Amino acid sequence: MKIEQLHTLFLRFPVICTDTRTITENCLFFALKGDNFDGNSYAYEALEKGASHAIVDDKNLENTETVILVDNVLETLQQLAKYHRQHCNAKIIGLTGSNGKTTTKELITEVLSQKYNTIATKGNFNNHIGVPLTLLSIKPDTEVAIVEMGANHLREIDFLCQMAMPDYGYITNFGKAHLEGFGSEEGVIKAKTELYDYLLANKKFVFFNADDPIQVSKLTTTTNKLGFSNQHHNYLFIKFLGADPYVSLKFKEVQIKSQLVGSYNFTNCSAAVLMGDYFNVPITAIKSALENYTPRNNRSQILEKNNFKIILDAYNANPSSMKAALENFHELKADRKIAILGDMFELGTSAEKEHQEIADLARKMNFEEVILIGENFYKTKTEFPKYASFNALAKKAEKIATAEATILIKGSRGMALERLVDLF
């Protein structure tokens, strides 16, 4: 079946499912393969549960009216998404960066939704499967689509751009993330700026942080851009008012107090303000959107439990975000501060060095206590209490904190440090 024909079918049945546990009536089931599963094995089950058609690539399956045999299911999904994107009217904002992508995406969505019919990537489903699924969620009445793009190797962002063809783009920052795949910080910068490369080559529009010298240096050849700054009035000036603990800022004499912890969230809020202003969202609506947004999914959440105030930032971590979290925690006003840090993943050969540097940084902060969890932190040379795993710490839970304290919990997703909350 040609992509044009498949797209006609998709318009009749405009819901995509890739998991038989979430089948909905009259959806299209795409039989994707994974490391430990083959969606082809579930094609008939999907049809029995209500899928209108199953798209498969197992040559042993018969090509019928409801079973559509293609050469490669994943590539077909991506081609369908690109074709759909070419035939939709929505403006697409591409978003990438080392830290803060998902929070920034949610903030931008909240702001633009004040005026436009807006959709965005769900969760952090931002890879070669998530991006096509986001594009295929664009409806005829969708006006703006915010497409988050993640990568851990070079050329991935470029590949996603060729599919999504964004009209606008923004990079949150460049940090020490996925060093295992990128090799170095220079590799990170090269990979992330593939978004800007695409936009400039196709004469599209760039949003940027004018206080980030790397971003500024990459955009010297275009005037098709708009930047925000906390330092220079020749850009869209957004003043940082503080973060103790919540980020507050001022724009056009209007003060905005968010519910986000950490000064590092200032640029995330500023990006949303920048785009809201560009798309003519009233400043009162921008203020309302940012002030009503509440963090979730273990991202910069503040929890109160017994005598503890817990800053839960356990969604993900890399050396850059860990450093920012510690510095912000250091500036926070509190009598007793305890930092509980979990391993940072995907650092490759840099893992030992990066974990030691974070342990050394934490030592300089003079917190009441620092607790390290994970195989990499366990190898560091430090006097802090160290545990090779969460379970090792859980066995000695009564030693974590016994008096009133403000506690930072920060670690990579694989550490699942949100489990600590139940130990207090």
TrEMBL record:
MF terms from GO for this chain are: ATP binding; UDP-N-acetylmuramoyl-tripeptide-D-alanyl-D-alanine ligase activity
Q: Which InterPro entries match?
A: Mur-like_cat_sf (IPR036565), Mur_ligase_C (IPR004101), Mur_ligase_C_dom_sf (IPR036615), Mur_ligase_cen (IPR013221), Mur_ligase_N (IPR000713), MurCDEF_CellWall_CoF430Synth (IPR051046), MurE/MurF_N (IPR035911), UDP-N-AcMur_synth (IPR005863)
Question: What range(s) does the Mur ligase C-terminal domain occupy?
Answer: 299-413
Q: What class of enzyme is it?
A: ligase
State the species of origin. Arenibacter certesii
Primary subcellular site in the record, as a coarse category: cytoplasm
| EC number, as in UniProt | 6.3.2.10
Protein name in the entry: UDP-N-acetylmuramoyl-tripeptide--D-alanyl-D-alanine ligase
Instruction: Enumerate the UniProt keywords alphabetically.
Output: ATP-binding, Cell cycle, Cell division, Cell shape, Cell wall biogenesis/degradation, Cytoplasm, Ligase, Nucleotide-binding, Peptidoglycan synthesis
Q: In which pathway does it act?
A: Cell wall biogenesis; peptidoglycan biosynthesis
Q: Which HAMAP family match?
A: MurF
Q: Can you give the residue ranges of the Mur ligase N-terminal catalytic domain?
A: 16-84
* Residues that coordinate or bind ATP: G97, S98, N99, G100, K101, T102, T103
Q: Domain Mur ligase central spans what residues?
A: 96-275
NCBIfam families the UniProt entry points to: murF
Mind telling me which GO cellular component terms the entry cites? Answer: cytoplasm
Provide the GO biological process annotations.
cell division; cell wall organization; peptidoglycan biosynthetic process; regulation of cell shape
Q: Which reaction does it catalyse?
A: D-alanyl-D-alanine + UDP-N-acetyl-alpha-D-muramoyl-L-alanyl-gamma-D-glutamyl-meso-2,6-diaminopimelate + ATP = UDP-N-acetyl-alpha-D-muramoyl-L-alanyl-gamma-D-glutamyl-meso-2,6-diaminopimeloyl-D-alanyl-D-alanine + ADP + phosphate + H(+)
Name the family. Belongs to the MurCDEF family. MurF subfamily.
The protein's job, in short, is: Involved in cell wall formation. Catalyzes the final step in the synthesis of UDP-N-acetylmuramoyl-pentapeptide, the precursor of murein.
Where it sits in the cell: the answer is: Cytoplasm
